[in-house]
Amino acid sequence: MNKMTKRVAVLAISAMMVMGSSLTASAANADRSYTYNYDYWGDVQDSPDAYTVSDVFTSTDLGLDVKMKAPQGLYVKDNLVYICDTGNNRILELERVSREKFEVKRIIDSFKGNVEVTTFSGPTDIAVSEEGEFFIADKGNERILKLDSDLNYMTQFDKPVDSSLDPNASFLPTKIVIDTAGRVYCVASGINKGLIKYENDTTFSGFVGATPVTYDWADYIWKKLATQEQRAQMESFVPTEYDNAYIDHEGFIYVVTDSVEEEDLDAGEVDPIRKLNLLGNDILVRNGEWPVFGDLYFGEGGGHTGPSYFTDVTVMENDIYVVLDRNRGRLFGYDDQGRMVYAFGSNGNMDGYFNQPSALEHMGHDLLVLDSLDCSLTLFTVTEFGSLIYQAIEQFDDGDYVGSGESWQKVMDIDGNYDLAYIGIGRALLRQEQYAEAMDYFELKYDDENYSKAFKQYRKDWVEEHIVIIVILLLAVFLIPLGIGKVKSIKHEIDTADIFRI
Amino acid sequence: MIASLKKKETYEKYFATLKFALYCITHPLDGFWDLTHERRGSYAAANTILILTLVARVMKLRYTSFIFMTVYWEDINIFLYLSSVLFPLALWVVGNWALTTLFDGKGRLGQVYMATCYALTPYPLMQFPLMIFSNLVTVDEREFYTMLSAISLVWAALLILAAMGQIHEYSMGKNLLFTVFTLFAMLVMVFILLLFFSMISQGVAYFISLGKEFLFRL
Q1: Which residues of B93-112 are buried (b: 16+ CB within 10 A; e: fewer)?
Q2: Nearest Cα residue to A160 out of A177, A176, A144, A181
């Protein structure tokens, strides 16, 4: 080969390598740390653990005579934990007596009251009001029970009377949340119109927050052309069902759904996590570099493929929400801007690994995960790294910018690959009006919005400081050519003046 | 050659031809006609413009504000990056010449190259100031940058079109037609090159495995 073709060959080969490397980069690496995060480029960055397993509680550890069977629901109120032991038709009330110890306080398997059935049939979720009233999704009995704190029957919420619902279809409430006014929002299987909303007097008052229907034009045209029989076989364009819900301390309802397709996620057409306001509109902030749908890469690994399938969500007091992925047994934490704070967990049998995680709750900063196949409750406690992150975020929200900056600095000392720390320090500096320093931090992590905020101020200050020089320069630019022109014309006049003609 | 470098006229000619690029980009039809027919262009100037274009392109990576350009440095190969200009340029020049020479095109291969390089002038001319400008704006003012940056490219593209029409002495319609044909020719050449290299690499792999087999059996 001569020189020219050699060069072209090198080009072609390196082009192939570039294409190849971008493909392999998306494949998951086996030697990853337990906790990880995504950087600006979407590359996986190993991270120190934000949470560690404090203990895993099985039926034996809790001293239960009858072992838990396919537990589905979890609820935390103060230091009490409620587990819906769905397979045994009972609800366990646990008390956290010390940091790492849970004791069974009572086992609820029936209640008192003037109704036909005073036991549960496959309870899937429970919620407890401020006053201690129990709301229980009694799925097998097709009702949502409301009991007082002494387990006396108060009332029940039945299948909503609505013309759009099939009267013969059974009503299967799976998840419930209650707001402070005693309204009940229910996720029921087979109902895709959003959450069922009941007023506190058990009247059904409508559906809230159905997902927007997505379809593409090609499908739509095909459907128009298809015959009746063909159409019946096609997928219908309907909203997706929700799988779980959580009401945060401000009364916003976070909902998750696992009926998502890879292509729709990539196209940004579905949102597996939504934050609903009172009108049922999605108000989740998605300002992060990457979309809020858990794992960014859906490569096959360990027998698991496809995107993250979220089965539960919980929201902490500092507005950090954590979602539970049942596909790969992972937890993803996001901050109020939709930026990933941490991701950890996996499938397996060790502590901190799951087989079929079904429910997630938080107790302060600690996380509780219920596994319905292992029938175990995993308690995650926050590490120094995790608590520093929380501290930095909380200090910033409280207006303690200096403290927040210092906390982020400590986070960065532990993990120099943690993007949020850089942006956090930058935001703290920005609030302290140290614009040039803030710009450096934002530039390091490519945060153009915040950088522009800092730069705008920096530019303004700079112009104000140098206004005299700027004005002089501007004047010079206009006046010097003008002056030169004037001098030239005078010179010309003198040169051509008749007086000097001899 | 060396002796001519000592003469003052050489430099005067060089700067005159380089300066003519500024006339070309503002008066494309007239300028590109004179470029070849009046010999007012030179290869030295064309090469200079091409080098400036390459330099601008590389410097953009580093000096443009990250608001407009975030660079994944791990994946940057400077030669590959430069070839993203040079390779299409070479394909264009060869493809255009090969086609037009069959259809009464008056331009020679060198002239096609020279005219194309002259037509690239707006790129370095605008990108260098834009590099500085990009560091003075915020995201709210990003439209100014993207607009100006787009203008530099569109301008260069239109100049190439005008240049080809002038040096080949084509009418407007014929010029457009052959521009489209040239683009097709470029695709064909890329296809053939890919075919060629995959064949070569398979051939090489065959002999390598043959050699390995031979060594194992020894």
Answers
A1: bbbbbebbeeeebebeeebb
A2: A144
Q: pLDDT at residue B201 above 90?
A: yes
The answer, yes or no, to whether ipTM is higher than 0.85 is no
The CATH number, out of the four listed (2.120.10.30, 1.10.260.40, 3.40.50.720, 3.40.630.30), of the domain defined by the range A44-382: 2.120.10.30
Position A7 scores a pLDDT of: 47
- pLDDT > 90? residue A161: no
Could you say which of B67, B77, B197 has the minimum Cβ distance to residue A12? B197
For residues A491 and A480, what is the distance between their CA atoms, to the nearest angstrom?
A: 16
pLDDT reading at B156 higher than 50? yes
Task: Output the CATH code of domain A384-465.
Answer: 1.25.40.10
A275-292 pLDDT, tens digit each: 999 888 999 999 888 999
Q: CB–CB of A14 and B70 under 8 A?
A: no
Helix, strand, or coil (residue A311): strand
Interface test with chain B among A3, A8, A457, by most B beta carbons within 10 Å = A8
Band (A265; pLDDT cuts 50, 70, 90):
confident
DSSP per residue, chain B: -HHHHHSHHHHHHHHHHHHHHHHHHHSHHHHHHHHHHS----HHHHHHHHHHHHHHHHHHHHHS-TTT----GGG--HHHHHHHHHHHHHHHHHHHHHHHTTTT----HHHHHHHHHHHTTHHHHHHHHHHHHHTT--GGGHHHHHHHHHHHHHHHHHHHHHHHHHHHT--HHHHHHHHHHHHHHHHHHHHHHHHHHHHHHHHHHHHHHHHHHHHHH-
**Residue of chain B whose alpha carbon sits nearest to that of A20:** B75
Burial string for A260-282 (b: 16+ CB within 10 Å, else e) reads beeebbeeeebbbbbbbeeebee
**What is the distance in angstroms between the Cα of B139 and the nearest Cα belonging to chain A?**
6
Q: Do A452 and B67 touch (CB under 8 A)?
A: yes
Structure tokens at A2: 């001569």
Residue B130 half-sphere exposure toward CB, CA atoms < 13 A: 26
Give the C-alpha separation, A68 to A88, whole Å. Answer: 7
The pairing of strands A340-347 and A353-354 is: parallel
Is A21 exposed, middle or buried, given 0-12, 13-18 or 19+ CB atoms closer than 10 A? exposed
Residue A112 is classified by DSSP as B
Sorted by where each begins, the domain ranges of chain B are 11-217
Distance of residue A455 Cα from the nearest chain B Cα, in angstroms: 7
For A49-79, b/e burial (b = at least 16 CB within 10 A) is bbbbbbbbbebeebebeeebeebbbbbbbee
B75-93: pLDDT as tens digits: 999 999 999 999 999 999 9
What is the DSSP annotation of A330-389? EEEEE-TTS-EEEEEEEESSSTTEESSEEEEEEETTEEEEEETTTTEEEEEEE-HHHHHH
pLDDT of residue B105: 87
Contact (Cβ atoms closer than 8 angstroms) between residue A47 and residue A332:
no
Quote the DSSP letter at residue A193: S
